[in-house]
C-alpha cells in the first residue's frame, strides 16, 4: 500500500512536470496589483497530493505569487496548519488580510474559486 501510494505520487509529479501550464503574462502594473492581493496568502500542501497539484497548476497558470508550505515533512508547518486551521488536510490556503481575521480555506475547488475571484482585475 505504501509503495502504491509512493508510485502513484511519482506518476502524478511526472505527468504534472511534463504538462506544466504556461504562466499567463500581464503588463507590469496589473501583475503588481495581483501580487499585492496575494502577498499574504500561503498554501499548505503536500508535494504529490493530486488536489494540491491542481491548485499549484492554477497558481502557475495565473502567474500568482503565493508562498507554499510543505505540511507533510515539515513538522512546524504541519502544527501551524492543525493548530490554526483545525485539521491536517491539504490543500489549505491561509488568507491574511489587513485588519481582518485570518482565514483557513480548505478544499481545492473552493481555493481555486477564491483565488480566481480575488485576483480578477476589473
Ligand atoms: N476534497 C479535498 C480532498 C483533499 C485530500 O483528500 N487531501 C489529502 C491528501 S491528497 C489529505 O489531506 N489527507 C490527510 C492526510 O494525509 O493526513 C480537496 O479537494 O481539497
From TrEMBL:
GST N-terminal domain: from which residue to which, for each copy?
Answer: 39-122
- Entry-linked InterPro entries: Glutaredoxin, Glutathione_S-Trfase_N, Thioredoxin-like_sf
Q: What is this protein called?
A: GST N-terminal domain-containing protein
Give the species this sequence originates from: Methylophilales bacterium HTCC2181
> What are the top taxonomic ranks of the organism?
Bacteria, Pseudomonadati, Pseudomonadota, Betaproteobacteria, Nitrosomonadales
